[in-house]
Amino acid sequence: MNKILLVGRLVKDPEFKTISEEKSMARFILAVSRNYKEADGERKADFIPVSVWGRRAVVVRDYLRKGNLVTLGGRLRTSSYEDEAGNRKYRYEVVAEDFKIIDYVGKKQA
Predict the structure, then answer these.
(1) Which of 14, 15, 49, 92 is the most buried (most CB within 10 A)?
(2) Mean pLDDT, residues 67-95 taken together
């Protein structure tokens, strides 16, 4: 089973691409706080690349902005390539299947 659940904040506005009339894709980086503090007392974060496809990508384009707190569910996808020196390099990203905005940046407090 390949299932991931993350809660974090967007580090910058999402990138959006239209691949064809029926296929869209959005990408962003999600900063996810670790649930422990380092020896220096600081709570570090992991920066997770996320991609969203189809109609959900349009929602990402229209509603998500830098600083939004979101929860998302998806799966981990890995890929590899050879660099110019012939070394194998690996990449990973979370492919989001669903998400929810928990906190809008700049939202008025009630």
Answers:
(1) 14
(2) 95
